[in-house]
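Need tokens for this chain, all 141 residues.
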Amino acid sequence: MRFLAVIITGLALMAPAAHLLSLPNKIGMAKADYFVAQQAYAGWWIVGLLLPLAFLANIGNAAVLRADGPALMLSIAAAALIVLNLAIFVTFTRPANLATENWTVQPEAWESLRRQWEYSHAANAAVTFLAFCCATLASIR
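Here are the structure tokens for all 141 residues:
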């Protein structure tokens, strides 16, 4: 269970980290270029399925490590951070996806939607990295 919690949480970090690393290159792009660049993410929704799996793996890890108070708390923290990731996605990222029909429609407010989308992914990279750290620390205790 320890291994699964670390591996699945680490895999869930890949997409937000990729978004964070591309942010400096994309945030200033012209409208046409940005909408073309966004098409690279078509089909990435499948990676989002790792988040519920990471949540479950960290809850499972908490159950396995329940006799070790700090490890239990770290596992619960990892699971809670995964929930925070999902809340950020639902509150900020998804509305931008809906307003742009997954970046195929160019509304007038596209620049504010771009900022919302990019920075929500940056926040999720930090949140998921913290979840990964918690899962790892819990598992190596």
